[in-house]
Design a protein that fits this description.
The protein is of the alpha+beta class. It is built from 5 helices and 6 strands, in the order H-H-E-E-E-H-E-H-E-H-E. It folds into 2 domains: about 45 residues; about 130 residues, 60s Ribosomal Protein L30, Chain: A (2-Layer Sandwich). It starts with a helix and ends in a 7-residue tail after the last strand. Strands 1, 2, 3, 4, 5 and 6 form a 6-stranded mixed sheet that branches. The chain is about 45% helix and about 15% strand.
Amino acid sequence: MNIRSHSVVLGLGLVGLLSYTACTAEKAAMKDRDISAVPVTNPELAQNQAVQPVPKMVDGVFATNDHLQPVYFELNQSKLSGNAVERVKSNAEWLNGQPPFLIRIVGYADSRGSIKKNERLAERRAIAVRDAYVALGLPKERFSIAGRGAEEPACSPTTEDCLSQSRRSDTLIEEKSLASR
């Protein structure tokens, strides 16, 4: 390689490093920001505006939203029940009225069973919810799935009610819509 090639390679490497650093800093800033901490200087303005909750960051740049309800499953099942289908329909209606967010479906299981079994079951639950959204007209390309097994229980202590709340799939949306990119 000649000196010019080394300069090009070095320059490209430096650009990549700077891009990575900027993206990492932006993600960290997004996690740390809290718009609710900004003081309101005009009391009349504060009374006329609804307070918007800060989205809870859950999975990287994906966040929960109050409009998207968890979909619950029966013990050892990944098939959607009638109530689960209604939740998916309600979530899909809201998603259809929003900008084209990327969507992550995260499946969970309760703590009964082996780690491997719970991870597979959680992934099947996420796939079932994704497939239901797609059947309702949302583009499959917008979805990613993840199975978390019993990693993040919905509550504690470990009671039957708490275990049933842990058998779920959560629908998360990217904080920034595709249209704003």
